[in-house]
Amino acid sequence: MTGELNTAENLFGKGELEECLNLINEELESDENNSDALVLRARVYYNQQKWGAALNDLNKVLVQNEKHVLAKNYKQMVLNILSFWNKDSYNP
To answer: pTM for the whole thing?
Structure first.
């Protein structure tokens, strides 16, 4: 993991998601297939409940490495959330 991604990881831990996303996106500009950056961005999207964006990044990682444990686990969590999500409960 690069220094920029370490900084982004620290920002993620502090809940500074927008700043974290900015660093991740800069990293992905130079290497759009950086699996560490894609998984971290998916984690940010997960926290923001942007399920589709998270799945897109996780799928990119899993195409590169189908055994990537963190990507597999996050993908399963997102799929579980989506399968149990009841939109009617948000619109009484």
So the answer is: 0.87
